[in-house]
Amino acid sequence: MARIAPLSGFPEWLPDARIVEQHVLDTLRRTFELHGFAGIETRAVEPLEQLLSKGETSKEVYVLRRLQAEDDAPADRSGQLGLHFDLTVPLARYVLENAGRLAFPFKRYQIQKVWRGERPQDGRFREFTQADVDVVGAGDLPYHFEVELPLVMADALGRLAEVGLPPVRILVNNRKVAEGFYRGLGLTDVEEVLRQIDKLDKIGADAVGDLLQEQCGATADQARACLALAAISGADVGVIDAVRELAAVHGSGTDLLETGLAELGALIEAAAVRAPGVVVADLKIARGLDYYTGSVYETVLVGHEGLGSICSGGRYDTLASDGKNTYPGVGLSIGVSRLVSRIVAAGLVRATRSVPTAVLVAVVTEEDRAASDAVAAALRARGIPADVAPKAAKFGKQIQFADRRGIPFVWFPGDRAGSVKDIRSGDQVDADAATWEPPAADLWPRAVPAV
RNA sequence: GUGGCUAUAGCUCAGUUGGCAGAGCGCCUGGUUGUGGUCCAGGAGGUCGCCGGUUCAAGCCCGGUUAGCCACCCCA
């Protein structure tokens, strides 16, 4: 029995899954850079009061403590450090700290581990990688960025389709629409209404209707109106008209609602052109609407909706503030670990091999090992990943060594040149290590669709 | 933090009423004496999560504990 057990919630991939993850990370980074986002990395820790101030949410934060610290640790939080649980709080701090040296609007991407002391489950981890893109303005931030950001993510995730990622659907809503509508109805506890609406998929409309009346003081008619709003969804501007009609029926039109509808309409319209079929308005999206102030986004993998959102975000009017200046921001974050764990476990994406090696150079006898080393060196000098067999075993064993790792070619050194065998086809040809090249597709391991 | 389920070979899992610890896959060796995969034969591999209790006897029953999975909470 293994004396060491894996720690649940702290995922570690085997080498082939790591190749898939690395491809995802490379693709995200490249796409973010194509869209003009600059990369940064922030420290892993923030002062505890910083981490807990944002929205005062009861985030499960891992606190950092020195082993040699005195046992009678101070009860107060001052001076304590915690591991960051997202990349937004660090960004806000980073922006304030470097405001004088940054150019606004500041577009940045950031791909790092984050930690949350939650109970792990399928697709939910205590340590995981997030890939964030945000735009931060100084003083103001034009609405068009709320259109641009989800389209950046649509581009990034769309580029992963070629390795087998299922299509994604980015669901959008707008805090102003929800709040404007509820207030127009006469419901003032907007956050409580949102909390109940968020349960729709889990407990159904009838149960949510009851909760709206019990928890939010809604009348039966108000509850019905909220449910009717939440039922609206669609990928074209028809949803805007549908909300307007519903508001007219209930006399719940407000200026705030109109502002929100104009924003949501602009987003839907632009998305229909730039990423057809990907962005869908869904008026029941409520998560995060309590702290976001404008657009809010959630992303599901088509066919894997049960996994939850793989990419979420929204707009904060006050992402950061130093008292004199406020910095609004809009951004989204991809749960890379959640995404990778699913596409690997579900067998959607695989690596072409588990090691970088393209060519295994066989060793005839230990006395001849230098000749094999020379072949490998010649290949590496020309950018071809090569390894030398660990033992001068029978050639069958050496071929098997390559086969188990997915190494496509085995090189047999000869007196003058040598020969190289494609162990998938069995084809073997004489070759010179100074000139031979593998097919481009075999040079490095790649992520490919598994089916 | 709350609740339910689970824990047996490297992996996936059987194990009857309490009575000698099992299968498939994987791994090693040989058949094939320096060109793999298929096939055949053989082999290695176990603190039955841990601690205690009941019993002539516990993988199995009881208590505790730890870990894992799932759900709630929350969220990528």
Description:
With 451 residues, the chain is α+β, with helices and mostly antiparallel strands. It has a domain at 359-449: Anticodon-binding domain (Rossmann fold), CATH 3.40.50. It has 14 helices and 19 strands. Strand 16 and strand 17 (418-422) form a beta hairpin. Helix 4 (144-159) runs parallel beside helix 10, helix 7 (200-216) runs antiparallel to helix 8 and helix 9 runs antiparallel to helix 10 (255-274). The longest helix is centred in the N-terminal third of the chain and has 20 residues, at 15-34. The protein is elongated, with a radius of gyration of 27 Å. The protein binds one RNA strand of 76 nucleotides through residues 1-2, 5-6, 8, 57-60, 85-86, 114, 116, 118-125, 128-131, 287-288, 299, 308-312, 333-339, 362, 364-365, 392-403, 410, 412, 421, 423, 426, 428.
Entry summary:
This protein is α+β, with helices and mostly antiparallel strands. The protein is built from 14 helices and 19 strands. The strands form four sheets. Strands 1-5-6-12-11-10-7-9-8 form a nine-stranded mixed β-sheet. It has a five-stranded mixed β-sheet with strand order 15-14-16-17-18, with helices on both faces.
